[in-house]
Amino acid sequence: MKRWFVAAGLAAAVAAVLFAWSDRRIRESSRDRIFDRLEDVPERPVGLVLGTAAKVADGRDNLFFRYRVRAAAELFRAGKIRYLLVSGDNGRASYDETADMRDALMALGVPAEAIYRDHAGFRTLDSVIRCKRVFGQEAVTIVSQRFHNERALYIARSEGMDAVAYCARDVSVRASPLTYVREYFARAMALCDVHLLRRPPRYLGERVRIG
């Protein structure tokens, strides 16, 4: 039993070091390419909006979704981007993050012809790599909350993309604690995917032209 506790303690210590190292590496790698102020964002042809559910489990609006879509619309209205690529999960007919994002953007005044949908953005890695390999975009502005943008930028840079990011308004830790806890695991997995597994997107498919 004592050996088991020692082993468990060592495993926990290693995991803590890994999470801390992953977090620091991803934060530092994105520092010069992430923007909070709209006026500071450089122009890019396309904004990549990372998907999330429009509603949370109890039916309330998902604030991550609301703020993310609002930030994307701000970029478009300011002329910082010409098109929006909304990328999310559409793994079953009854669940389509891309349709929800499109509809929300249109309600904010973005015309339908400026919105393209990536139905196979099942993970952040899928969304970013498909943006380049399927939709042909190398210079993009990624739109999400800061913690998510940092990880997406790390993946984009590993793909050789000229990506920047615009940060949507954050949601408090109190409102969604599991999201922030899960991010530590996601960052460690992102480094593993990029450097060890070299994991490809679940689907690629034919090229799609934007514009």
Task: Report the count of strand segments.
Answer: 6
Q: Secondary-structure element order, as H and E?
A: HEEHEHEHEHEH
CA-atom Rg in angstroms: 18 Å
Enumerate how many helices there are, as a single number.
6
Describe the protein in words:
This protein is α/β, with parallel strands linked by helices and 211 residues long. The protein has one domain: Rossmann fold (3-Layer(aba) Sandwich). Helix content is 46%, strand content 13%. It is built from six helices and six strands, in the order αββαβαβαβαβα. A six-stranded parallel beta sheet has the order 1-6-5-2-3-4, with helices on both faces. β5, α5 and β6 form a beta-alpha-beta unit. α4 crosses α5. The longest helix has 28 residues. The chain is globular and about 65 Å long.
Give a brief outline of the structure.
Helices cover 46% and strands 13% of the residues.
Task: Name the features.
alpha/beta; Rossmann fold; 46% helix; 13% strand
Helices and strands in order:
Layout: H1 2-29, E1 34-35, E2 46-50, H2 63-77, E3 83-87, H3 97-107, E4 115-118, H4 124-133, E5 140-145, H5 146-158, E6 164-168, H6 177-197
Parallel strand pairs: 1-6, 2-3, 2-5, 3-4, 5-6
Helix pairs in contact: 1-6, 4-5, 5-6
